[in-house]
Amino acid sequence: TPYGLRSNPWISEVKLIHNFFNFLFIFSVGQIFSGHIRPGLMGKKSKGRISGTLNFVLICFLVVTGVVLLYIADESLLELFQNIHFYLGISFTILFLIHFKLTKNKK
Hints:
Helices cover 80% and strands 0% of the residues. It has helices at 11-42, 49-71, 75-105.
């Protein structure tokens, strides 16, 4: 259009679905914390500990940047946090697959 980029008509529905699954994801992380994450950190076995710890740290940063995105009003900060959140999500996905492969092969 002559006035700039047109936003995608599905963006509000996609955001709604994304936010719904965020709550399920955070709930799931809480559920596996006591049975998987905590024993992995406290146990003597070191397989997957580094990748698992990095995954948990990335999850924490994803939650924080996600909450910031819900409440931020400044357009320049909004774009910055959208990019940070996006790249954290990509990094988490890749690291999660690495963690899964590392721990699956060593059992």
